[in-house]
Specification:
Chain A: It comes from Streptomyces triculaminicus. The complex is a heterodimer of chains A (268) and B (516). With 268 residues, chain A is mainly α. Chain A has 16 helices and no strands. Chain A folds into 2 domains: 110 residues, no CATH class; 146 residues, no CATH class. Chain B is built from 20 helices and 13 strands. The termini of chain B are close together. The chains are: A mainly alpha (268), B alpha/beta (516).
């Protein structure tokens, strides 16, 4: 139906080159010459062009002729209006608009929102962790690192042999350097995670394929882990040298309970 | 008969579109049992609560189409997929992805992929996690980079693929629900005789699966075409490749639903044209106009017919603007009318504009009910009516003469019982209004005809009875054939079901025939 009506149009090929050159000249200085040239019956030679200009944002942003049809219908263009543009229905009109619209600016326009604002991902979780619950969890971890081992040994083997105070103090002295280093390394861990997340997000926005993404993220992951391990070691070494460690980490807890474990284990 | 009513963001939830007609339907067809299978769209909707449900709603099952995947989905987890299952998943999802990215007629591919994924979800489970896995991303990427793929799909980046796969996981969530019979004896959709989907989007997916697994016929009703709704909802925040892929998915899904449905109904001609455009077979399309409660308008409609000549109280002739915000051309039309008839008053149903003064002789008021129309001699309809013009039907029920713009489904609703003018044309609008204001007898005649037409076409009763007849029609064409009668339902097989001479190997009578 549409194609049979096309010979009436002045532009023989709606998608063609003639259209593109006219469009280049048109934007600034009003209607293109071919549009003003009217048919003998009084209607403009290319009425669709005016419609295209009126709904340019809609047509350029649409990914599908049906999307244009939905937009046109919402703006009051019905089948009877489409008949004035020499089309059978809105869908046919939308197809012509979809075929004729210039998409130069549109790809730039939609490419722009690709980098998303930071606000999600692991760094946000970590930053949110600095609140009450985060501090509580941190305290809990540090406390466990300090006295947790000793308490577990105490529960497992009973308080036979040594008084609990002595056990606890021995455990604290043994685990104190590790706990201190771990507690201090939370901040570098958060920073490393933040850096890695930011890096990965930038790569994600830029990379075109999964393989490329993997290739570009893997070094960053390696660097992050190395950085953190380095920071941890850097904290561990001064902590161990500064704090006087006990005679041996396991010795005070192990000596009093050494006769009991086999029987306990078999009982348990 | 037991009907499974499938909805998405609709009926049982108080906050949602399409709740009213479903409510009328379920209440009006009290002789049938209904099971509601509802997909919710947001947490806000779930918090809004449900409509009051009548007694013939036997069961309500709901699942969210938002947020993360449900933790306890049926079957085994994706982590336990073996090599064979991974191969199956990659093949079927690859089909689905190729159907989305490649142009041209890919309906068979889409159907293959969808059915394959449905079978996989039913056999193995874990589909939600698989759709979020790297395997799915790789399949999607391969489809986007395939030769001949849509240019916009070809330019998709990793971030776009992530967005699309997340969306697909949500849209395909109905595949991994436990609505299709579970191990604990719950028969789900296997126990219904007919699936009635309220849109051709994800809501119809359970219906497609019930048809595939149990042979249950599917009836699709769209008062708002899902695809058009999707386009109008606005997706400008997404990137071009994402929008291209999502649009293709919605198109293919709608085409698949239309192809599988036994019957498709539309609310008006515009919706029907959309459905036809998306691949619905014209022979299976029916138009069932939405129904409105006629008793609300009885007092105004009938009362006015008796004393038409007296007209409404006070002042000069009055116009009522209904159906949306005031459009600029109305003021021009009003000015033109006042040069001929100085006493014309205008009442606008809607909020007054925040800025600017209200012109003389113009009153604003919220639309509360039929009394609004009683105050006017002529009702003027705004051109913003998208889809079915409800305000126009209300005015017709009230027996008012109307002047409507030529847009949407106005022409088929009004028939010949009111004036139709070109949209956005102030002079035509003014002339039509003046012609009606000057001729009270013509006004009364048109109003009476409009009311008669509305009572004939747009009542709840006609809507409900049309659906009741459609149910029987669908069922008479595709009798449900349960392999074994449900032992939990007494008299689930009638005595006459087994014919003495076995004409057909399977029982050919619907189960509802024997139910109390």
């Amino acid at each position: 139906m549409t194609t049979s009506l096309r010979p009436e149009n002045a532009a023989p090929n709606p998608v063609g080159i003639a259209e593109a050159t006219a469009g280049d000249a048109a934007p600034g200085e009003g209607p293109a010459p071919e549009e003003t040239r009217a048919h003998p019956d009084g209607t403009p030679a290319d009425p669709v062009k005016a419609l295209l200009r009126r709904h340019h944002a809609l047509c350029a942003g649409a990914v599908d002729p049906l999307e244009i049809a939905a937009g046109l219908e919402a703006r009051g263009v019905c089948d009877r209006v489409a008949a004035a543009y020499r089309h059978r229905d809105v869908f046919a009109l939308a197809e012509e608009l979809h075929a004729r619209v210039e998409r130069g600016q549109e790809s730039e326009r939609t490419a722009e929102p690709a980098p998303r604002p930071a606000g999600d991902g692991p760094c946000a979780v970590l930053r949110a962790g600095w609140g009450t619950t985060g501090s509580l969890a941190w305290l809990w971890l540090a406390a466990y690192a300090l006295v947790g081992d000793g308490l577990v040994v105490l529960l497992l083997h009973g308080r036979r042999g040594l008084p609990p105070q002595a056990l606890a103090s021995a455990a604290v002295t043994a685990a104190a350097p590790t706990a201190l280093a771990l507690a201090c390394s939370v901040a570098p861990a958060a920073w490393c995670a933040h850096w890695f997340a930011g890096r990965a997000r930038r790569v994600l926005g830029a990379s075109r394929g999964l393989a490329e993404f993997g290739r570009r993220v893997r070094p960053a992951l390696l660097v992050t882990v190395t950085l953190f391990v380095g920071a941890l070691l850097a904290f561990l070494w001064p902590a161990r040298t500064a704090l006087p460690a006990g005679p041996s980490p396991a010795a005070p807890a192990a000596t009093p309970s050494s006769p009991t474990p086999p029987s306990r284990r078999s009982a348990g | 008969m037991r009907v499974g009513l499938l909805s998405e963001g609709g009926y049982p939830y108080a906050a949602g579109e399409g709740g009213e007609w479903c409510d009328h339907l379920v209440r009006g067809l009290g002789q049938h049992d209904f099971e509601l299978y509802a997909l919710s769209r947001s947490a806000r909707q779930e918090d809004s609560g449900w409509h009051a449900l009548p007694g013939n709603v036997r069961r309500v099952r709901a699942a969210p189409l938002w947020g993360g995947p449900a933790p306890g989905s049926v079957g085994s987890a994706y982590g336990s997929y073996g090599r064979e299952q991974r191969r199956r998943f990659a093949g079927h999802f690859g089909d689905l992805a190729a159907a989305i990215t490649l142009p041209g007629d890919q309906a068979y591919r889409f159907a293959d992929g969808l059915h394959g994924l449905a079978d996989l979800a039913r056999d193995e489970g874990g589909l939600a996690a698989a759709l979020r896995s790297e395997l799915a991303l790789r399949a999607l990427e391969t489809a986007c980079r395939a030769p001949g793929a849509h240019p916009a799909a070809y330019s998709a980046k990793v971030a776009d693929l992530l967005v699309v796969s997340g969306f697909l996981e949500r849209a395909l969530r109905p595949l991994s629900l436990d609505w299709y019979g579970s191990a604990d004896g719950d028969r789900g959709l296997a126990g219904v005789d007919l699936c009635h989907a309220t849109s051709a989007g994800p809501a119809a997916l359970p219906g497609l699966l019930a048809k595939r697994f149990f042979g249950t016929p599917l009836l699709v009703t769209e008062y708002e075409v899902h695809l058009r709704e999707y386009y109008l909802a606005g997706t400008e925040t997404l990137s071009l490749p994402v929008r291209t892929l999502l649009s293709a998915f919605h198109r293919r899904l709608a085409a698949q639903v239309y192809a599988e449905a036994a019957l498709i109904t539309a609310g008006d001609g515009q919706a029907r044209r959309w459905q036809e455009r998306c691949g619905a077979d014209r022979a299976r399309l029916r138009t069932i106009h939405p129904g409105m409660d006629a008793t609300l308008y009885e007092a105004v409609g009938e009362g006015d017919l008796n004393d038409t000549a007296a007209g409404p109280a006070g002042g000069g002739p009055a116009l009522v603007w209904a159906g949306g915000d005031v459009e600029p051309h109305l003021w021009e039309a009003l000015a033109a009318m006042r040069t001929a008839e100085p006493g014309v008053r205008l009442r606008v149903l809607g909020r007054p504009p925040a800025s600017g003064s209200v012109p003389d002789g113009v009153a604003y008021g919220p639309a509360v009910g039929p009394e609004d129309y009683a105050a006017g001699d002529v009702v003027v309809l705004s051109g913003a009516a998208d889809g079915f013009p409800t305000a126009l039907a209300e005015a017709m029920f009230c027996g008012r003469a109307t002047v409507s713009p030529d847009a949407g489904a106005v022409r088929e609703v009004i028939g010949g019982t009111g004036l139709v003018v070109p949209a956005q044309d102030p002079r035509a609008l003014a002339e039509a209004c003046l012609a009606l204001l000057r001729e009270p007898e013509r006004r009364a005649r048109l109003g009476a005809a409009a009311r008669a037409r509305a009572l004939e076409l747009f009542t709840v009763e006609q809507n409900v009875s049309a659906f009741g007849a459609l149910y029987l029609e669908v069922l008479s064409r595709a009798p449900v054939q349960h392999a074994a009668p449900d032992p939990s339902v007494p008299f689930s097989h009638a005595a006459g079901t087994q014919q003495p001479l076995s004409v057909s190997p399977r029982a050919a009578s619907p189960t509802w025939a024997g139910r109390p």
